[in-house]
Design a protein that fits this description.
Length: 137
């Protein structure tokens, strides 16, 4: 199933049919894509969204980065809770959205290292281009 995992109906269907899933996306809220793909993302090194930090942070910036990461995980929990409930009812077992996303065979990520912060990627993540894949003259 080729799907965009931001709305996890495709991963629910792929899990139900027991077929591999391929995710095509730019970015997911709360860094859920990197958590589900099990990419290393320590808050002392990888800056969180909306902090405007680089990888060279002082102690207070690292604390702010940690607080942003914790608060975004709470926001993500409430945002994806209806989908977890839907998936649990449909699949007839307890399942969370990160559990569904961990089943992905391949992640096709449209990352652009000129705009996005470079970070470690897992082998099943394939970078397929930047924000705009077309070449202009």
């Amino acid at each position: 199933v080729l799907t965009d995992p931001v709305i996890p109906c495709g991963p629910i269907l792929a899990e139900h049919l027991s077929v591999p899933s391929v995710f095509f996306l730019r970015v997911m809220p709360c860094g859920l894509d990197f958590e589900a793909a099990q990419c290393p993302s320590p808050p002392s090194y990888v800056p969180r969204v909306f902090t405007d930090h680089t990888d060279h942070m002082n102690f207070l910036q690292r604390v702010k980065n940690l607080i942003f990461g914790i608060s975004s995980s709470f926001l993500c929990y409430f945002m994806f809770q209806p989908y977890s409930k839907l998936a649990s009812e449909f699949l007839q077992r307890d399942v969370t959205v990160p559990d569904l996303l961990r089943q992905a065979s391949i992640w096709l990520m449209r990352l652009d290292f000129a705009l996005d912060y470079p970070r470690p990627l897992m082998p099943n993540i394939i970078v397929i281009g930047g924000v705009n894949c077309a070449y202009n003259k």
